[in-house]
Design a protein that fits this description.
alpha/beta, Tscrpt_reg_IclR_N, NagB/RpiA_transferase-like, Arc Repressor Mutant, subunit A, about 260 residues, transcription, DNA binding, Rossmann fold, DNA-binding transcription factor activity
Length: about 260
């Protein structure tokens, strides 16, 4: 296990539990307590956790992990979801993408797609507020990239603010692919930051079809900021079958559920 992988896992434990001890981490990861101390010190120096005697605590209940530390979470599930989403995109479409680890995987699949590559240029037009997605796709000849204006958030590389809305108001998109932090019948699609929720809502409102790409850990939960009600979503692409009672609630408002096949 590399140090980056350990740091990912340590941050997940701290985020989920609020506080952890060196002994807990050592047992969970199967590494020495000396290694755990070094990792905790590294994370504390980066102001990602608060170091305590014998362990560490999170920075607060609303703390959001930076994007680079989320990559290990549900990695295979997100790749499977990305493949399924890419199959729903037709050559020549304009696609709005918000930021996040799942939509980053979707962007990579669109960038690798031979089906889109063989289409007349551009194979696909991507409109995004995510700087990392724009950077990765800028080398793909069959992808036309349009980046919104706005001010970047360090946590997620997403541009937020009124300039994003001003850009999106000028476009009519075929499909929005939205990553979320929660999806429930009661609250619809949600995320942890109100600025990102506003941008995602505008991307969806600018599109004729809205696809939510969310792994099973996001289904049935709600987070702080609402993106849109469930009725505004056309398709959910996820990695596991949805519980029957939740699936029934989604079907009532016309949400199609696509379960991605594993590799």
């Amino acid at each position: 296990m590399t140090q980056q992988q350990r740091l990912n896992l340590v941050l997940e434990l701290v985020s989920e539990r609020g506080s952890v001890s060196i002994t807990d981490i050592s047992e969970q990861l199967g590494v020495s307590t000396a290694t755990v101390r070094r990792d905790l010190n590294t994370l504390a120096e980066q102001r990602l956790v608060t170091r305590t005697h014998g362990g560490a605590t999170s920075l607060g209940s609303g703390y959001e992990l930076p994007l680079q530390y989320k990559i290990a979470r549900q990695a295979e599930a997100k790749k499977a979801i990305a493949r399924a989403v890419a199959e729903l995109i037709e050559p020549g479409e304009s696609v709005g993408l918000n930021g996040g680890t799942t939509t980053t995987e979707v962007a990579r699949e669109l960038g690798r797609s031979e089906r889109l590559r063989k289409a007349e240029a551009p194979g696909v037009t991507i409109v995004t507020n995510a700087l990392n997605i724009a950077y990765e796709l800028s080398v793909r000849e069959h992808v036309k990239i349009v980046v919104t204006g706005g001010v970047p958030r360090r946590q997620s590389y997403e541009l937020v603010g009124p300039l994003v809305g001003a850009t999106l108001s000028e476009f009519s998109l075929d499909t929005a692919v939205l990553g979320v932090d929660g999806l429930s019948a009661a609250f619809g699609a949600t995320t942890v930051h109100e600025g990102e929720a506003e941008v995602s809502r505008r991307i969806g409102a600018s599109s004729r079809r809205v696809i939510v790409a969310a792994d099973a850990t996001k289904i049935g939960r709600a987070t702080f900021a609402r993106i849109c009600p469930l009725a505004d979503i056309d398709v959910l692409v996820t990695d596991q079958p949805v519980a029957p009672e939740i699936a029934a609630e989604f079907a009532t408002v016309g949400v199609q559920i696509v379960v991605a096949a594993s590799a």
